[in-house]
Design brief:
The chain has 133 residues and is an alpha/beta fold. The chain is 47% helix and 23% strand. Strand 4, helix 4 and strand 5 form a beta-alpha-beta unit.
Amino acid sequence: MNQSRIYTTVVLMFLTVILVMPILAGADRPQEMFSLPSDYYRQQWCTEHRGATEVRMADGSSADCITSTHVVQFQFAPKWAEAIGTALYYSSQTGKKAGIVIIIKEDHDLEYWKRLNATIEHFKLPIRAWKVE
């Protein structure tokens, strides 16, 4: 083999190892170890509750999920406070009850779940909260 061909072979082997190793490293991990987008949780939850996803509002915004009784906002736990305002706004636009689904990805996210519920209770907000893990 000439020098150029050896070099090309080594480079190709190196690139193959770099591209394949991350895939093999995660092959034995359960699916929940990987980060899932909020769309995954929204679609799953909304389907289970017989709702419609990404429903357009009159102002051009879109509600995450609308069921027969609730308009539901989905949010990862650290952004729990944002979900309150959005859920109340969509409720005012649809006439449906406000709902929030908080996505819990790690044990420490349960602190945000507690904060959400404490705020709802303290201010007697007309919001129903669910969590998915």
